[in-house]
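Sorry, can you check?
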Amino acid sequence: MIKNLSILLFICLIILQFFGPSLPEVSNINPNDLIDNNPEIPEDIKTTLQVSCYDCHSNETKYPWYSSIAPVSFLVVRDINHARDELNFSNWEDMSKLDKASALDDISDVIIDNEMPMAIYTAMHRGTSLSNNQKESLVLWAEEFSDHMFD
């Protein structure tokens, strides 16, 4: 019985590989990108954003090997689409000042509440967890950057 169920599950997983979702598009040419259009952003903040945020919150996603294997591919696609809908740094300059300020406030909130980067993401991607110093720096930067938009 267990052997038959295992074989059936294996066959279903094989079939599922042919019906998986399309991965969200990747582009390294993003003329409205936050970092490209704001040279005053400190290098440490740029690096932190690119390492810990850009895979999901930009068009510059670097897909890991497992992102094309169902059923994980469904989760990857869902998470990236949701993340880009919430905030896409590649479309930063398309946003109004108020939307940018709101996004920066949200960045501070999710960092302070330890919601981002997501635990499942940091577990699968070494070096993406934020240290306390990085969290403090990002929150301070987000607040200052928001304030400077309205000077």
About this structure: The mean pLDDT is 92.
